[in-house]
Amino acid sequence: MLKVNEYFGGTVKSVALENAEGTATVGVMEAGEYDFGTATIELMTVTSGLLDVMLPGETNWKTYSKGETFRVEKDVRFKVKANGQVAYYCLYL
Amino acid sequence: MLKVNEYFGGTVKSVALENAEGTATVGVMEAGEYDFGTATIELMTVTSGLLDVMLPGETNWKTYSKGETFRVEKDVRFKVKANGQVAYYCLYL
């Protein structure tokens, strides 16, 4: 059965999948700023919308748009800021 | 509140979104063959996995992979076949 995950009081929702490409989720976040933690390396790709990202050790936001991917290391925290609803694909390495 | 949709007894689940790019869903389908209907023109992009598609009037399956998009007209039915779990982004025009 496909698993639906909810975070931050339902303002981020995702559906998990696993196939030949690996273990991943696709999801949507409402406009807002979020502080995420990682348990594995994550490759996060923006599917729709614009996502500002501040990775560990960085002090500036960098904007990622449709089709762009950023990598987040294992066991860190990072910040994202969505100005509108943003869809993403997150692959767990 | 983000809306989660379930189809075909939960073997297809999606999350709806709306932003500057339009109204869309991101979702996952379990391995299987599905017959979908459209209420608008749909632009469907494979986010992960391989999806065989048979559009109205066609008699052969065509395989779409990660990043590829197909267009489905309004008020038609079309078939898709997922060999494993497939993630997609569907934009409603």
Automatic annotation (TrEMBL), chains A, B:
Pfam families for the chain: Ppnp
Protein's name in the database: Pyrimidine/purine nucleoside phosphorylase
PANTHER family reported in the protein's UniProt record: PYRIMIDINE/PURINE NUCLEOSIDE PHOSPHORYLASE (PTHR36540), PYRIMIDINE_PURINE NUCLEOSIDE PHOSPHORYLASE (PTHR36540:SF1)
GO CC annotation terms, alphabetical: cytosol
GO molecular function, one term: purine-nucleoside phosphorylase activity
Family: Belongs to the nucleoside phosphorylase PpnP family.
Entry's EC annotation: 2.4.2.1, 2.4.2.2
The UniProt record lists the keyword Iron: no
UniProt entry tagged with the keyword Nucleus: no
Described function: Catalyzes the phosphorolysis of diverse nucleosides, yielding D-ribose 1-phosphate and the respective free bases. Can use uridine, adenosine, guanosine, cytidine, thymidine, inosine and xanthosine as substrates. Also catalyzes the reverse reactions.
Domain of life from the UniProt record: Bacteria
Species the sequence originates in: Gaoshiqia sediminis
Catalytic activities: thymidine + phosphate = 2-deoxy-alpha-D-ribose 1-phosphate + thymine; guanosine + phosphate = alpha-D-ribose 1-phosphate + guanine; a purine D-ribonucleoside + phosphate = a purine nucleobase + alpha-D-ribose 1-phosphate; adenosine + phosphate = alpha-D-ribose 1-phosphate + adenine
Protein keywords: Glycosyltransferase, Transferase
